[in-house]
Amino acid sequence: MIEVSGVGKQYGDITALNRLDWAIGEGEWWGIIGPNGSGKSTLMRLLSGVEQLSEGAITIRGVNIADYSRKQLSRMMAVLQQEGIAPVHYPVREVLEMGRYPYLDWLGRDSKDDVDTLIEGIMDKLELHDLAERPLDELSGGQRQRVALGQVMAQEPQILLLDEPTTFLDIHYQQQFMELVAKWRKEAGITVIAVLHDLNLAALYCDKLLVLRDGRAVGSGTPAEMLTAERIGYVYEVDPVVVAHPSNGVPQILLTRQV
Ligand code: ADP
Ligand code: MG
To answer: Signal peptide position in this chain (predicted)?
Structure first.
């Protein structure tokens, strides 16, 4: 569904991405992993069309990303950042409705008749009813991230891009967030691409991983193929122990104390 061919991105003298080839199938959940500065966020900005490539091409369903209009792209693809949404003083229900902006015509009318049903359904799924009238800036980080997810759900994208969505969350909200995305994907068949810092979460939830180092792909494949002690050791400059998760066998990374 998404083809990345020979993609490079330059910022002055800095090569943030170098000759990247990558193919993403419809409905797959990819994780992008790699150390700080390896080009993960740059790749997300190129995929979402907010920045232009220096080299190569990205196509979605056979069409070059540069040939889609802003509105077409935002109907197809939603992006959720680390901090989700700015903590504005708007009630949660209105924040969810803002997700509909790509579908509004110049009079502010939605192309869908039953937006209220859609928003109610999202509030059911994310258990947001109790928060519906509360202003966003009075919620906790975990609650806000759930609202941010609701807003992108209202956008009804086919592709979801997540850039470190769980970084500021405690383990309860980390798991809740990943489970909600997993459920959404199962129900709606969306394609998910997520930059994840937590390798263990990535192994639990992603079908496949793209591993970046210094703007280059070091490999791509299943978590079992990618999360070997050798590869993780090389990419992150650590000396990890990889164990099989006791309940499902996926690789989990442990660090060893050095001193
Ligand atoms: P990651 O998300 O993996 O931490 P980034 O994609 O943010 O990495 O950055 C990759 C490299 O590109 C880094 O060296 C970073 O300093 C550089 N970079 C990213 N964005 C810009 C920018 N707007 N201007 C200049 N350099 C940038
Ligand atoms: Mg980043």
So the answer is: none
Q: What 3-state class would DSSP assign to 57?
A: strand
Domain range summary for the chain, segments of one domain joined by +: 2-224
pLDDT, mean over the chain: 94
Query: How crowded is residue 202: how many other Cβ atoms within 10 Å of its Cβ?
Result: 26
**Which atom of ligand 1 is found nearest the CA of 195?**
2
What is the rounded average pLDDT of the residues 229-255?
97
Q: Supply the pLDDT for residue 87.
A: 81
Which CATH fold would you assign to the domain 2-224?
A: Rossmann fold (3.40.50)
The structure tokens listed for 120 are: 């109610």
Task: Tell which one of 14, 164, 195 to mutate to probe ligand 1, the residue whose CB is within 8 A of the most ligand atoms.
Answer: 14
Ligand 1: centre distance to CA 179 (Å):
29
Residue 40 in contact with ligand 1 by CB distance below 6 A = yes
Name residue, tokens 């997700």.
Answer: 99
Coil vs helix vs strand at 129: helix
Q: Which of the four pLDDT bands, split at 50, 70 and 90, describes residue 161? A: very high
**Overall pTM > 0.90:** yes
